[in-house]
Predict the structure.
Amino acid sequence: MKSAIYPGSFDPVTYGHLDIIKRASEMFDEIIVSVLDNKNKTPLFSVDERVKMLEETTKDLTNVKIDSFSGLLVDYAHSINVPIILRGLRAITDFEYELQNAQNNRILSEGSVDTLFMTTSLEYAYLSSSGVKEIAAFHGNISKCVPPLVEAAIRQKFPKES
Ligand code: ADP
C-alpha cells in the first residue's frame, strides 16, 4: 500500500489544504494528514480542535486519516513506517523554506524519507491559515477561505463585541 504523510500546523485547515488532500488522496492508497504539535508556537486552535476540524472536513475521503505528532517529522515517519512526505507549494517564498526542510529530512533520515511537492490550485495560491486568522480577527469575510464549520469555529475565537 502506498501511503504519504501530509504534515502541517493546519491552524486552521483551509480550502487550500483540502484541495491538496483531495488531489493527493486520488494518487495514493492512503493519506495521513498529521497535525504538528509545535511547542514553540502559540496556535489559535489546540491540537485536538485542529484534528477534529480535519476529521470533519475530510470525512467523505475514505482513504484519508487524521493524526498528530510532536518532535522530528522523520522520527514520526519512521514510527508509522511511511517514508513519503507531502507538502504544498504556493509561491517561490514557500519553495526556499520547503527545500531546506526537505533536504534536512533527507539528511536526518539518511535518505530514507523523501518529500514530494504538490503545487496549489491557482484559486488558492494566496490562501494561508495566518491570512485567514488576520481577516477573521477584524471580522472580515472568510467564507471563500474555509469550510462553514471552520468559519464558525474561528468566529467563536473572535467574537464581535456587543
Ligand atoms: P506549516 O506546516 O508550514 O505550518 P500549514 O499548516 O499552513 O504550514 O500548511 C501545511 C502544508 O500545506 C504546507 O506544505 C503548506 O505549504 C501547504 N499549504 C498551505 N496553504 C496552501 C494552499 N493554499 N495551497 C497549497 N498548499 C498549501
